[in-house]
Amino acid sequence: MDKLQALGRLAQKAGPYLLLEMLLPGGTLIALLVYLHQRGDLRSWDAVRRLAGEVGARIERDLERASLARTHVNAWPVTMNH
Questions:
Q1: Contact status, residue 35 vs residue 18, Cβ threshold 8 Å
Q2: 36-73 pLDDT, tens digit each
Q3: How far apart are the first and last CA of the chain?
Q4: Quick one: 34 exposed, middle or buried, by C-beta within 10 A (0-12, 13-18, 19+)?
């Protein structure tokens, strides 16, 4: 029964964040910002801007890596075996 109660508490705490994530465009970032704000980690706009800059830089690096990987995959020779 303890596991069921723990799961219920987790659903109660995470529910609003999951709804934001699923229903809003960009919901994952919005839910993360709301969570950090409620914890007190975002006490000023400077912290929000710093976090947004870090997230943006990470996304840019990941997209660049994915683009390079796709370029390398497209350069592979294609052989057709019948």
A1: no
A2: 878 877 777 787 788 788 888 888 888 888 877 666 55
A3: 59
A4: middle
Residue with tokens 């709301």: 34
User: Other CB atoms closer than 10 Å to residue 70's CB: what's the count?
Assistant: 10
Radius of gyration of the chain (CA): 20
Alpha carbons 10 and 17: distance in angstroms, whole number:
11
Q: Are 35 and 21 in contact (CB under 8 A)?
A: no
> Can you tell me the distance from the alpha carbon of 48 to that of 30, in angstroms, rounded to the nearest whole number?
11
Please, are residues 33 and 42 in contact by the beta-carbon 8 Å criterion?
yes
Its pTM stands at 0.41
